[in-house]
Amino acid sequence: MSIKLNQLANAIRFLSIDAVQKANSGHPGMPMGMADVATVLFKYHLRFNPENPGWINRDRFILSAGHGSMLLYSLLYLTGYKSISIDDIKNFRQLDSVCAGHPEYEKNTGIETTTGPLGQGLGNSVGMAIGEEIFRKKFGSNTVNHKTYVITSDGDLMEGISHEVMSLAGHLKLKNLIVLFDNNKISIDGSTSLSVSDNFKKRFEGYGWSFQEINGHNEKQISKAIKKASRSNKPNIISCKTVIGFGSPNKSGKASSHGAPLGDEEVQLVRKKLKWRNQPFKIPKEILEAWREIGKKGKSVENSWKESLDKKNPKIKTELEKMINHSGLENLEKVIKKEKVKHFSSKPAMATRQCSSSVIEVVSQFLPELIGGSADLSGSNNTKTKNSKIISSKNFNGNYIHYGVREHGMAAIMNGLTLYGGLIPYGGTFLIFSDYCKPSIRLSALMGLRVIYIFSHDSIGLGEDGPTHQPIEQLAGLRAIPNLNVFRPADINETLECWEIALKSKNNPSAIALSRQKLPYINKNLSEKNKCSLGAYELNITSHDYKLILIASGSEVEIALEAQKRLKAENIDTKLVSMPCHELFDKQDKDYQNKILEKDSCSRISIEAGSIKGWTKYVGSNGVTIGLETFGKSAPYKEIYNHFDLTSDKIIEFARKLIRK
Ligand SMILES: Cc1ncc(C[n+]2csc(CCOP(=O)(O)OP(=O)(O)O)c2C)c(N)n1
User: Which residue of 285, 291, 369, 578 has the lowest C-beta tally within 10 Å?
Assistant: First the structure.
């Protein structure tokens, strides 16, 4: 018996309605409206294998409108992914259920990314589509030839980030990107006409996209549009005119179906209207079988792909596996050690942004998966080196993306590049504009993605550009994000170590804050060990009789060193601790932390050219935190440091007071 499309789609609709009803919270309207589009996509077009959700040449499917999560969970369950059972669906939105309120990325589950904050999934998908182009160029179109499909909503397209990433996708002509726009003209406040009068066709064509508009409940139109899009030489958006809450007699087409259970009575009415006579969570056998058949098709597609790779392209297979497994990283430790030795003898004074550049130049030689870029500040962030090859619409055989002035888009795209697999993105902007990346940085951290953020001009030390450009609260804000390592190295030795940790961090992103101004080489002894991995370490003591500890990061280590020297001249002995990473220090055992901070026997002063928030816990209630609690100033940087008392004089003044106590 052949099962009609609407029966397949109704299985999605009722799993969604019933799960939301049982959880007594969730968003039924979107899955009800997009069920037809999703069914056509999965039935006729999407190449995927539920038995191997991580197959590198699978089509990617991203639900950018993450509030419609039940659409995704239903599809994964119906097509036979092991990650989602009917019991998981019954547990929608309950503690530890894989069917969380919004999709939460987990490798090899079919949930390709975490979505919910509108616009992010669209950004990730642009990153994945770039990833596909890079891989296709490296491994050939016989090996890599898949699409990236995204479902976006009105809300996704209202978000500013949608402009950034779609504009870049148009520029790069990402022809394998196909966006299915749920054009239901409803958002939470009601009709989108309350706030939007965009001409979508003109908007997207203006970006260089191909635009089609169809009835999102018409099987033929949906399929034809997807087919046409898959032959296009531009990125594609298909505006699917749909009815939110499709099938609900009283709530369809209305905002009331968007984000709340329909209610028992209304659910009964939908059952009647759509002629669905099954109990909640019961999918008739023949419908489930038809869905499972759709899921099974991918296995043979993957198998023949594998066979052809084994037989015809064994070399490519080896290269592909190397890249996916990041085999190049095996050389990292050795190379970093060698660089440390080299710099120990020359002891260069360099801005840490230059230090970072020299690390990138070295590691990019043996890490083809390292994909750099900057939001139009390449020269300032020092992200582009002589080994950087520009990625363009004409040539994806590169390792550097000019993101343009699109910080938010860059960050979401970097998440997409990591999620694609086999790639390690790093991207730069000024530390002050990390604020423009924040929503995506948060998601890098939430998903545990290896993304490296390069934030140069990391303090008032940037000088004349003034308070609009001088970060104050940014370091504290970034340090407040769970699972993000924030590094602030002090010289080339520390920069090498911080980069090494960032590259090895499989399950968390890193933000590396770098100075604009030149800094001296501060490393005292050549150490094989990566001291930055401890978060903080003893840099220098003037004698073993010290009762005072100075703690500093980045550019302020130099000031603390000067203060230490001058204090010694006054017979005040001190220990200087360099603290490039709070998060890693906080992870050390208590013994190590006590060894560094010596809370029972020493007073402590911290100094960092940024907000003092976050330092009190290291200096204690009797200690002193030197930092900033106001915005900066426009002036040459040394004058600003003096103006704000970020000086060795100030450290000495406090040191004398603490010692006299
Ligand atoms: C960045 C962001 N802002 C706000 C929200 C809260 N929110 C969830 S859905 C939504 C808009 C719903 O409209 P639409 O995107 O058209 O979805 P539909 O109503 O069609 O399901 C909003 C404002 C969010 N998830 N992300």
Answer: 285
